[in-house]
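Form 7-S
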Amino acid sequence: MRHKTLTHDDIPETYAELVGLFMPRPLHDDVDYRNALAMLDVMAGFEMNADQEDYFDAIATFIEKYEAEHHAIGGRNMSPVELLRSLMDEHGMTESDLGRLLGDRSLGHRILTGERELSKAHIRILAKHFSLNPAVLL
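Output:
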């Protein structure tokens, strides 16, 4: 998967084809983790059919387990903005990337500086994108 940058247009329609592209399995190291994140990043934010949603959920489950064991974030000790900054850093995202994910390029900066709070819609998008429980961003 790492030899070619995937786009949403490259995502197959069926579960079997998705498995052929990237096998959902336990993650053993940071390379597996980054590859799984890259797969979800390509799929997140788009309409998905039932097979794609099942596949997304399977990969997200393995990511959550790996993060809990290897990249535990003290979510209760961090503000939502601090947690968001940590997640962005882990995923190599910029303020502009955050804004684009949320639908407005300048929104990333405004949220990270406290000028704008996260809306429920933003929290849903971020939770899906980062494969986490939306409650940690409240």
